Fold:
Amino acid sequence: MTTYRVLLFARYAECFGAESLDVQLPAPATVADLVLALRQLPGGELLPPQPLVAVNLTQVVSDHPLAPGDEIALLPPLAGG
Amino acid sequence: MPHLSHAPIVPDQVTAELAGEADGAVVTFVGRVRNHHAGRSVVALAYSAYEAMADAATAAIVAEAMARWPVRVAVVHRLGDLAIGDVAIVVAASGGHRAECFAATSWVVDEVKRRVPIWKRERYGDDSEAWVDPTAPAGTIPVQG
Structure:
């Protein structure tokens, strides 16, 4: 198992009541695996099936592979500008 | 100039740092906090961001615009608590002629909305609050929370 730290912002931080979570997944894992695990946690039922996810400051698609030490962030719908 | 500001933005300062003597045109877009959204009265709002990514994403947009048009571009987005009428974002393009400055400014504003991880929490006249979701269908009541 590998532990991934996930940064949470705005509405998603409120859903989970935390600004980050540690999630354990069997390797190799993808963004889709991570989202599935997050949706099973308390508060995770409020997540959409395919939320925006950034890895190392770049938005990625759901089959993006995760590596230990990645900076992973779950992004609610963007509302800047 | 940093792309994110926790202090009020002064649009003239953004353009003053951008315009050079060879530039015949400067286009500045100033986005301000309006007092209504989806039919509700808005009394204040707060912007928050994933700051490391927001700064990197904005820098990438500026670089792409300057590669695409012969202009120099500045973008500053406000974070924190804002009142009605406060400046939320300034996008400025400076170049030889107006056409490329208008085009670059418009494109950059669209890309910031599409790519930069910033979130907006509105407070309404009845003291309720909600996160703004531009992807929600038109006419949807904002999510309470």
Chain A has a mean pLDDT of 96. Residues 31-39 of chain A form the longest helix (9 residues). The longest strand of chain A covers residues 2-8.
